[in-house]
Here is the input.
Amino acid sequence: MSDTLDAQQGALRSQLLDQVAAAADLAALDAVRVAALGKKGAITDLMKGLGGLTPDERREAGQKLNALKDEIAAALDARKGALEAVELESRLAREGLDMTLPARPQARGRIHPISQVVDELTAIFCEMGFSVAEGPEIETGWHNFSALNIPPHHPARQMHDTFYLPDQDGAKDADHAETVLRTHTSPVQIRTMLEEEPPIRIIVPGRTYRSDYDMTHTPMFHQVEGLVIGRDITMGHLKGCLIEFCKRFFEVDDLPVRFRPSFFPFTEPSMEVDIGCSRKGGELVIGAGDDWLEILGSGMVHPQVLRNGGIDPDIYQGFAFGMGIERIAMLKYGIPDLRTFFEADVRWLEHYGFEPSDTPSMAYGLTK
Ligand code: PHE
Here is the structure.
């Protein structure tokens, strides 16, 4: 009887161990476990059969069966560990990352120098407490000219090479009916004064239009306007603000800056601002030498312009300035031809454009 049991157990043992070894994955191995140790498993069956034996036989056979059960359980465990390790290996291989690849593909777009310079100006003026304002590119004759002290038929209107659009219906007068593409960003001075209470401190970057086309003129170009209105604003503020701007924008700490008397109908007094440069050997170097380069127009806001903007000139004063964005971009970045800005030539953009991630800031520097 005991011999038969031994033989039976021996056969079962090698059969189960073979099956454990042959299980190719965790699911197959679990099937082997159920077939051996489950409720209706082979070893469980044998355990149930112990009841029919004498106490002595039962003790002996029970011990052997327990040993068999432990051995099979251990074999199952070992195989399970091995199969899990194999599975982990294959998952790691499948989901592997090449850590030597760049985090992002090389950015292909470039930031246009106009956008870059607008971001640079904005960073500088915002740190001085200015905020950014905007206005429409299609303006009335009143906002673009009359409110800025350039009355109809004044020669200054002709000087602007204006693009005229069809008159607007239903306007309150001819001046408001007249519709133009704005010739400068100065009409936003008027719009801001009419909308906001002083103190006012804004810059206005944006597109402007004049009917002119040659090496140094394009029919669309960009300007940035500045307007400061307050109770005690003086020319000292104008000078301090613009000298500081020029030094920071051109990144030359001891940049020479000169204020030269000029004329604009909307400022009194008016001055143009020049920065020091050298043109030796045909090469322009900003901040060096004994030559001058004009970069912007400015002045104290004319009392009549304040009145047109609904501001009492006996209480408030202000200063304003305006400059061409292409011009200062060309000077700073050595771009020789204005017209190339608008040719949409990707090779030009590749050369003169900026990395999208290089956002200008006063904390980290304007350009890298
Ligand atoms: N609007 C003037 C121009 O286009 C520039 C300017 C702005 C001058 C503000 C003085 C004050 O030339």
